[in-house]
């Protein structure tokens, strides 16, 4: 297994990044590619997924993020894409908190996670993810995150900028769910929003 890759980000796409390490370009699937910037030097902790018909690299900013990803893979019915989607739409602390609190209502908010899968996640992982996150942080993560969203000035500024650029309220409302899951700068929110609007999501 490749523990990590250190190099320069040469490409950022909606589902993956490409990192140049000593002249070799590694395509790495990551939960939120837009936390990285082109030409940025970084270290990405990786997980190599191997099947008969596929060889793929998945990358994460910390070992704890990768650890949670790997634990999610052990849940019946969740593959790499499903685990990646959960990490993309929710912070690791939130996911851990939801599992420990048996909060199915929170888990079903993730793409591809229905009630049955949410229950399976709890059954398979409750009591097994405490090493992934500080439990005291995890227990308060959901409420803190809600407060952060309400006072997220950067997001509000980005939404105002979209209006100035001529986008209608109904168009902006479609991309808000994608934006409010993240904690970024105003410029980063705008970049992600514009990408979503162009793609018609």
Automatic annotation (TrEMBL):
Domain of life, per lineage: Bacteria
Keyword field contains Zinc: no
GO molecular function: ATP binding; four-way junction DNA binding; four-way junction helicase activity; hydrolase activity
Keywords: Cytoplasm, DNA damage, DNA recombination, DNA repair, DNA-binding, Hydrolase
InterPro entries with a match to the protein in the record: DNA_helicase_Holl-junc_RuvA_I (IPR013849), Hlx-hairpin-Hlx_DNA-bd_motif (IPR003583), NA-bd_OB-fold (IPR012340), RuvA (IPR000085), RuvA_2-like (IPR010994), RuvA_C (IPR011114), RuvA_C_sf (IPR036267)
Localisation: Cytoplasm
Signal peptide range in chain numbering: none
A biological-process GO annotation: DNA recombination
Keyword Cytoplasm annotated: yes
Cellular component terms per the entry's GO annotation: cytoplasm; Holliday junction helicase complex; Holliday junction resolvase complex
Primary localisation category: cytoplasm
Domain Helix-hairpin-helix DNA-binding motif class stretches: 70-89, 105-124
Region (Domain III): 150-201
Matches recorded under Pfam families: HHH_5, RuvA_C, RuvA_N
Stored HAMAP family: DNA_HJ_migration_RuvA
NCBIfam families registered for this protein in UniProt: ruvA (TIGR00084)
Domain comment as written in the entry: Has three domains with a flexible linker between the domains II and III and assumes an 'L' shape. Domain III is highly mobile and contacts RuvB.
Subunit and partners: Homotetramer. Forms an RuvA(8)-RuvB(12)-Holliday junction (HJ) complex. HJ DNA is sandwiched between 2 RuvA tetramers; dsDNA enters through RuvA and exits via RuvB. An RuvB hexamer assembles on each DNA strand where it exits the tetramer. Each RuvB hexamer is contacted by two RuvA subunits (via domain III) on 2 adjacent RuvB subunits; this complex drives branch migration. In the full resolvosome a probable DNA-RuvA(4)-RuvB(12)-RuvC(2) complex forms which resolves the HJ.
Function: The RuvA-RuvB-RuvC complex processes Holliday junction (HJ) DNA during genetic recombination and DNA repair, while the RuvA-RuvB complex plays an important role in the rescue of blocked DNA replication forks via replication fork reversal (RFR). RuvA specifically binds to HJ cruciform DNA, conferring on it an open structure. The RuvB hexamer acts as an ATP-dependent pump, pulling dsDNA into and through the RuvAB complex. HJ branch migration allows RuvC to scan DNA until it finds its consensus sequence, where it cleaves and resolves the cruciform DNA.
Entry protein name: Holliday junction branch migration complex subunit RuvA
Annotated source species: Bacillus mesophilus
Organism lineage: Bacteria, Bacillati, Bacillota, Bacilli, Bacillales
Protein encoded by which gene: ruvA
